[in-house]
Amino acid sequence: MDNQLKFCLHLHKIKSETMKNILIVGAGGQIGSELTAHLRSIYGNQNVIAADIRKTDNISDDGPFEQLDVMECAALASLVHKYKVDTIFNLVALLSATGEKNPTLAWRINMGALTNCLEVARWFGCAIFTPSSIGAFGENTPHDDTPQDTIMRPNTIYGVCKVSGELLSDYYHSRFGVDSRSVRFPGIISNVTLPGGGTTDYAVEIFYEAIRKGSFVCPVPENVYMDMMYMPDALNACVKLMEADPSRLVHRNSFNIASMSFTPEILYAAIKKRMPEFTMTYEVDPVKKAIAESWPNKMDDSCARKEWDWAPEWNLDLMVDDMLKVIKEKFDKGLIR
Ligand SMILES: NC(=O)c1ccc[n+]([C@@H]2O[C@H](COP(=O)([O-])OP(=O)(O)OC[C@H]3O[C@@H](n4cnc5c(N)ncnc54)[C@H](O)[C@@H]3O)[C@@H](O)[C@H]2O)c1
């Protein structure tokens, strides 16, 4: 540890019980862009610092934004010191489909970001949230009602990073007392920022193509079930878990959370019911097929329900109605083409 860092640590005196000053790294991505706005609406604009390697307008307009490469540990530490951060949301990752194109880079970024965030959390006494994923499971995992504690032998580099990340986060909790918590997100469906290279991206892209062209070419086989979640439930899960009473948490890294599970064919039928002219064909991507088939059909989220009162509010029909409405409005206003 260099002298500048030691000096920061010496000055950094805060240790809050709940979230007061929050840093989101990877804030410009699909989840981060909406989590930033959501946390600012709860904790105040000035108390939620968005950081990303790229500058993004919608997160830098309403509150503090810092351009940060999270691989630079000293730069991360000095931000935590500067803003007296007590909670870090680490959202930096190369996602599943992109990760398979460059596994060494995926390992370096996903584990490097996590290691730096955990170290800085340890030095400054911060709580830390790092999402895991349904991608942490593999072919040998029970696919139906996938238990909280079960076989985890993923065969993607993304999954390998997620399992390693869960273990490392639990290690930092038991070894150093770091307040690390996390959830295994399903595929996240949203209408603000497009997804960044995951296997479940089809479940977002289908809505844009339905409105834009009236047709969609699906890269995932018609009959593969995967857990999915609408963004408002995902944001709520982040807050609820980080605000949960730690004495109730038997698990930490990571909780299964679920709200809906469907195949491309089921999603297609739900959209077609509302847009009868909509058509869908398949051009299956073999990488996405292999990944999707290795993931759970539907997770059992009873531990999250019991330990921190997880309760989703959105189901398939509510989500489809809202996605079509919001994306259509954006097209009508010329916000997207
Ligand atoms: N989106 C999903 O469906 C989903 C599902 C399960 C888990 N997750 C997990 O949630 C987290 C966020 O996912 P997302 O979909 O928002 O990802 P994303 O790819 O949309 O966003 C990641 C962000 O990290 C930034 N970033 C990359 N390298 C960086 C660096 N070195 N320093 C600082 N910023 C950097 C990128 O610019 C990007 O804005 C990830 O851990 C992901 O594995 C996402």
Which residues sit in consecutive blocks of at least 5 with pLDDT less than 50? 10-16
Shape: globular
CATH architecture of the largest domain: 3-Layer(aba) Sandwich
Helix/strand order, N-terminal first: HEHEHEHEHHEEEHEEEHEEHEEHEHEHH
Stated plainly, the CATH topology of the largest domain is called Rossmann fold
Structural class: alpha/beta
Global Rg: 20 Å
Q: What's the pLDDT, averaged over the residues?
A: 94
Strand content bin? 15-25%
Task: Please give the count of helices.
Answer: 13
Spatially, the strands of the biggest sheet line up as 3-2-1-4-5-8
Q: Got a strand count?
A: 16
CATH superfamily of the largest domain: NAD(P)-binding Rossmann-like Domain
Into how many domains do the coordinates divide?
A: 2
Beginning-to-end CA distance, first to last residue = 49 Å
- Major beta-sheet overview: 6 strands, parallel
State the name of the first-level CATH class of the largest domain.
Alpha Beta
Q: Bound compounds, please?
A: nicotinamide-adenine-dinucleotide
**Percentage of residues assigned to helices:** 40-55%
Question: Mind explaining what this structure looks like?
Answer:
It is a single chain. A six-stranded parallel β-sheet has the order 3-2-1-4-5-8, sandwiched between helices. The chain has a three-stranded parallel β-sheet with strand order 6-9-13. The protein is 45% helix and 16% strand. It has helices at 3-11, 30-43, 57-60, 73-82, 96-101, 103-124, 157-176, 202-212, 231-243, 264-274, 286-294, 302-308, 316-332; strands spanning 22-25, 48-52, 65-67, 87-90, 127-129, 132-133, 144-146, 179-181, 183-185, 187-189, 215-218, 226-230, 255-256, 260-262, 279-282, 298-299. It starts with a helix and ends in a 5-residue tail after the last helix. The chain has two domains: 3-12 and 20-186 and 231-256, NAD(P)-binding Rossmann-like Domain (Rossmann fold, 3-Layer(aba) Sandwich); 188-228 and 259-332, 3-Layer(aba) Sandwich (Rossmann fold), CATH 3.40.50.720. The chain contains 13 helices and 16 strands. Nicotinamide-adenine-dinucleotide (NAD) binds next to helix 2 and strand 10.
